[in-house]
Amino acid sequence: MFMTPAMYVLERALDTAALRQRVIAHNIANVNTPGFKRYEVSFEEKLGQALGLEPGLTLYRTNPYHLPAPGLDLTPEVYQDNSTTMRQDGNNVDIDREMVDLAQNSLNFNVAVQQLNGRLAMLRYVINEGRR
User: How confident is the model at residue 95, as a pLDDT?
Assistant: First the structure.
């Protein structure tokens, strides 16, 4: 009932941030493992396609600012980066990149939480008929 398209996107963004946190921690834990290839999480590309920002599947919307329908699949995907090798032993984990990704993920998570809190505060305000 209260699951609007915006809430659905925020839910998926929070799920993705939690998954990305685990993937980055896994990469950092294996920074010295010979032959280990780092993993990444793909989500922003799907979201961009759903919003019509990237070529591919787009939705018909009456207003360009409308968000995708909750039935749309915005499931994040984990994939292995086999394209590079950072060291002689075949490992491709760059600790500096992982730390930047970790900081960026924390910021993305905090933004999504703030947005979700704002929307829930509006719902609480309406449910309480304007009383706090």
Answer: 94
